[in-house]
């Protein structure tokens, strides 16, 4: 049931999340209905402070357990004082045993509108039956001083994002809901442990489709952006499972039109960037080599483990080991492509990837040993011992 209603079940569920319904609760309103309630399309902003607890995440600052508890209490008290509460249910990943259901509880319709445009649709029943759903609290109208009051300083006066991995909770204050990229990155970090525990691989890849072939692509972000128009989704993040591969977030109107769950990849392609030309333009990798190069994430002299620059709550080594297992079990071929020397990375790169899949590509062999030594030096400095089967 949608709209305003006093469901004992919903009210009880909200009470279990610390929110008491003062007057009305509106659940799963359509965009047109949210506009009628006063929702506005916020200007896309970025750079809001992101605070995460549970473990250290790259690109985030920590928030202590007492601070998060205090913030949660202030936010739930604030939402409970608002006459109209908005609830929206959705999911990271569509229609899969590996996806993660999410419930947003908000004091205003604008944050719900922004949220509903990025997550997949799901049923309220799916939320209630999920053993580990994520909860998102959005407090658009909370006092600007809340950040300072819990000891996070005044930098977040206009808004900030706070997450607790252990509690599967995300809090968005002020206008930070307009930071779509920050919201997505934090949602991914929250959902990764759940996806992994359910047998899926949360991977920072993109999807290319050539006819009936689905390609899982890993590449440096600047290269990705140059060919973004050819990708299924511009957002980094897919879930790979025995059911197939799917993007984390919605893209376009894909809830009703077009596919949202793709078959298993025909191949995975790792894009590196090597000025020295010691890495061939295209070569075939064994599952162990693919896992090794995935773990290193080589980008023209620099290394980005698992090609992931944003926050992550999964050890890249564990992810690489699981990827190697899937490649072996599903017999998915893997390729390494060197993007250096391609003048216009976009269409030319996509053409190179497509031709790589259709040609008899030789096994990977670097020219000279210096690049191998650099890989080994980087990985041995981060990991005491690599699993059996990993190889350059």
UniProtKB/TrEMBL annotation:
One of its GO terms (cellular component) is cytosol. Gene3D superfamilies: 3.90.228.20, Phosphoenolpyruvate Carboxykinase, domain 1 (3.40.449.10). InterPro entries: PEP_carboxykinase_ATP, PEP_carboxykinase_C, PEP_carboxykinase_N. Keywords: ATP-binding, Lyase, Nucleotide-binding. GO terms for biological process: gluconeogenesis. Pathway: Carbohydrate biosynthesis; gluconeogenesis. It catalyses: oxaloacetate + ATP = phosphoenolpyruvate + ADP + CO2. One of its GO terms (molecular function) is ATP binding. It comes from the Eukaryota. The keyword ATP-binding applies. Its EC number is 4.1.1.49. Belongs to the phosphoenolpyruvate carboxykinase (ATP) family. PANTHER family: PHOSPHOENOLPYRUVATE CARBOXYKINASE (ATP), PHOSPHOENOLPYRUVATE CARBOXYKINASE ATP. This is phosphoenolpyruvate carboxykinase (ATP). It comes from Cucumis melo. The lineage of its organism: Eukaryota, Viridiplantae, Streptophyta, Embryophyta, Tracheophyta.
